[in-house]
Amino acid sequence: MNLSSLQQEFVLHFGEMGSRWGINRTVGQIYAVLFLSDVPLNAEQIVDRLGFSRSNVSMGLKELQAWNLVRLKHLPDDRRDYFTTPEDLWEIVRILVAERKKREIDPTLSKLRELEMRTVDSEADRHAHDRLSELRELIELLTGWYDDMNRLETDRLKQLLALGSKLQKFAGADILSLVGRRTAKDKTPAGKEA
Amino acid sequence: MNLSSLQQEFVLHFGEMGSRWGINRTVGQIYAVLFLSDVPLNAEQIVDRLGFSRSNVSMGLKELQAWNLVRLKHLPDDRRDYFTTPEDLWEIVRILVAERKKREIDPTLSKLRELEMRTVDSEADRHAHDRLSELRELIELLTGWYDDMNRLETDRLKQLLALGSKLQKFAGADILSLVGRRTAKDKTPAGKEA
DNA sequence: AAGTCATTTCAATAATTTCTGAAATAGCAT
DNA sequence: ATGCTATTTCAGAAATTATTGAAATGACTT
Q1: C-beta atoms of A7 and B163 within 8 A
Q2: pLDDT for A112-140, tens place per residue?
Q3: Where in chain B is the domain with CATH 1.10.10.10?
Q4: C1' nearest to CA of B22: which nucleotide?
Q5: Which long-range contacts (CB under 8 A, 24 or more apart) does B130-138 make?
């Protein structure tokens, strides 16, 4: 590995963590190298830094592109592809959440809704049905909240997060009335509004 | 698979999703069966429903216990172990987040803090150092917010989530002053307070 | 259109992870 | 202690996933 010890340690850690999130170690390491780099890198440079085969790096980059996690750049008079990660870390978080939502949450919601349509015969299925229904509601509340937060500019979002639960004393009464009460059930389903 | 089609479909879907989150398919399916069941189940019953080997189920249950995701029960005059998932879905969410935080976020924070201590020589490392620092700050803001929310009772939490970003108009001025302004930087680091 | 360079594909191999059956352990009752 | 039942361990087999080198593709230049 052709990296400073600082970078190498982070890259290894990140690869390790990635593999606990269903991202393969190699892809995680490629991402970490790009994340730390002050300049865009091409595939050959990544091969050099990490010591993987050229084809492995190519596949890793393809996967990162499919996840929208890297941006492709071009340098003048150089036809190789260069890659970077977004400057803004909040942008990275937004992309990550959006992609996981798209791939995991949305299909799960569809499946839950589909299963809720089924008519139920047995006692056991009655209970199972109720559990699925509860789960769907919970996911809807969370994704609704996420959609809401995702609409905020980053600075507002940071403010709100930093405030944490400070506002909760008010949420019960004062502010709710100021704002116009609106509970989860009133909300348009996730992804259905402009 | 000895399950109603309703249950079977959910179990398969859940196993699939689990495997995208670094949880193995089998373990995901075992969890799903327990999640849907209206009564506690013992290992043999899970073997019957899913058709895995007894030892595989034993290992899966052990892993779920290590994650705190199942509860062990005992029935009178029966010395077999019976398992359930918490009734309350919010309890499940809390456990999941707490465990992932413990296993992934906390070690990453330590690693980032450790790397930030390093003295930096090259230009490239200067930039890498800055990126790590930004990342640490972002994670601290998010975990701080999480700690805050986690302290709320479930009903308050649901209220706040349902409210979403509604409060943000106020967060800028009015309420901040009422509440006493407190930004992320003032916060005690995650896990350091009572 | 031949040559060069960059990237991708793909079949094979390697490595890792999951799963199993058999054996070991553990607790309890007689 | 012996037998009975429940659970766990563990080494090997099976399955899955990651990685590679070689060949194919594509795109640009001369």
Answers
A1: no
A2: 999 999 999 999 999 999 999 999 999 99
A3: 5-84
A4: C17
A5: B131/A35, B131/A36, B132/A10, B132/A36, B134/A89, B135/A89, B136/B109, B136/B112, B137/B184, B138/A89, B138/A90, B138/A93
